[in-house]
Amino acid sequence: MNVDRRRRRIVVVGGGVAGVEIATSLGRRSKNDQSMPAVILVDRDSAHIWKPMLHTIAAGTRDISQQQTPYLAQARDAGFEYQPGEMCSLNRANRTIGLAPLHAPDGRLLVPAREIAYDTLVISVGSEANDFGTPGVQEYCFKIDSRLQADAFNREVRIRMLQSVAQEQDLSIAIVGGGATGVELAAELMQLTQIAEAYGAPALSSRIRITLIESGPRLLPAFPDDISQATEERLESIGIRVMTNSKVSAATTEGFELDDGPTVTASLKVWAAGVKAPAFLTNLDGLESTRGNQLVVLPSLQTTQDPNIFSLGDCSSLTLSQGERPLPPTAQVAHQQAQHLIRHLPAVISRGKRPPDFNYRDFGSLVSLAEYDAFGSLGKYGLFKGTTIRGRLAQLSHAMLYRSHQARLYGFWRGSLVWMVDRLNMRLRSAIRLD
Ligand SMILES: Cc1cc2nc3c(=O)[nH]c(=O)nc-3n(C[C@H](O)[C@H](O)[C@H](O)COP(=O)(O)OP(=O)(O)OC[C@H]3O[C@@H](n4cnc5c(N)ncnc54)[C@H](O)[C@@H]3O)c2cc1C
Questions:
Q1: Residues in the chain, pLDDT under 50
Q2: Which of 59, 133, 156, 357 has the fewest CB atoms within 10 Å, counting from its CB?
Q3: How many whole angstroms from 146 Cα to the centroid of ligand 1?
Q4: Distance (Å, rounded) from C-alpha 50 to C-alpha 37?
């Protein structure tokens, strides 16, 4: 869908948890109301995926083709325009963003570098793991920050598992980072191994060694102590080796070298530690950024240097007046900030109203250990604030976060149908990727 060039334009860059919700909701309104600004979504990828489920794509316990939402299809349904491309520059005086040239996988130039004009710009380009310049990480480690990276890792896991079975060899996998990503990936890989055995990969679980390496004293530092402890115990009970207080100094072909201790050997290495925003946000035409490349925003979610540019989600840094530290890079924050802009952006643009301040409500955090277990700490809001939950209830709550995101993209009825089809597919299709 191409927007009417005479209408005012909201350009949303990054169609992740935050950006796709904004484009969908404001797109729907602008489709039915010509006085509303047109919405253009720019993303470097061709399909959206709910990032908190990337570890299941990486392990192959979820089918990528069933879980992704192509932006073109979403744009047609919701009434926004989708522009493929990677933002690399900004010209605030001209109100344009610059997109890098688009290349085909074989290197052919598809679309040369181009510019897109905006009246209001929303930057929600997310984050990636931070290797802090650790030698060897770029060369030897997989990361699972995007749909394509998770898929590439899954391809390699399937190849290595096949080799392990066919040649009766051991397979060692090491993951650096004991946050939610590393913990969830380790559990999912263990589940993959067990399901693969059931599909006729004999003794695979005795051949696979999974190690989770964390530099701090405990896993899941953002969770309460008791959840960290219970998670570590549960991971060890399913056969995962957990190493805390272990700082990686380098990645090599053999594995990970530690600051203090023997090398952890691993033929498959994943870096899932640290968080930083994309590098191009630093020095973006005078916008203020942090050392982790995040754009600094006011409580209104406007960037400190330009009221026409908003930023939210992982790529922004917001410290609320009642908080000491910036809000954490989580899907919950990204979603609530998106809802704030959905509610207020139209009036800000059409009536020049001052955007109200964003108010964060901490509903807690959840971590899922595949089918084995799940833990959650309910935050400062809601009926059961401060409570710790575990098991089926936590698993269900974790699943609900994803399903409610889908309902926001597809609407309640279609979202429910998608959920039902997923459940059916789980029964009808293989539980892991076998192709
Ligand atoms: C494996 C894993 C598990 C997680 N589990 C949880 C969890 O259980 N709970 C939780 O709250 N959080 C979890 N998170 C964190 C959560 O996914 C993020 O906080 C959330 O996705 C941030 O949303 P966002 O909209 O800011 O960015 P994203 O969802 O990351 O979206 C960013 C979008 O921007 C696009 N983009 C990037 N750069 C450019 C560019 N230059 N030009 C154009 N487009 C660009 C990307 O393609 C992407 O579509 C998890 C993360 C991972 C990786």
A1: none
A2: 133
A3: 8
A4: 26
Which is nearest to 92 in space by CA: 67, 63, 68, 121? 121
Q: Where are the domains of the chain?
A: 9-128+276-351, 137-274
Most distant pair of Cα atoms in the chain: their distance: 69
Identical topology for domains 9-128+276-351 and 137-274? yes
Q: Quickly name the fold that domain 137-274 has.
A: FAD/NAD(P)-binding domain (3.50.50)
**In the numeric block, which tokens belong to residue 67?**
């879980």
Alpha carbon nearest to ligand 1 atom 15, residue: 330
Three-state SS across 252-280? Answer: CCCEEEECCCCCEECCEEEECCCCECCHH
**Closest C-alpha to 175, from 59, 62, 262:** 59
Provide CATH code, domain 9-128+276-351: 3.50.50.60
Residue 330: CB atoms within 10 A of its CB come to 17
Residues 240 and 212: beta-carbon distance below 8 Å: yes
Question: How much is the pLDDT for 434?
Answer: 76
pLDDT for position 383: 60
CA distance 175 to 142: 9
What is the per-residue pLDDT for 56?
A: 96
Cβ of residue 285 lying under 6 Å from some atom of ligand 1? no
Q: Say how many Å lie between the CA of residue 37 and the centre of ligand 1.
A: 26
For residue 182 and ligand 1, the question of a CB distance below 6 A is answered with: no
Please give the pLDDT value at position 350. 84
| Cβ-based burial of 213 (10 A; exposed 0-12, middle 13-18, buried ≥19) | buried
- The per-residue pLDDT for 431 is 82
CA distance 107 to 405: 35
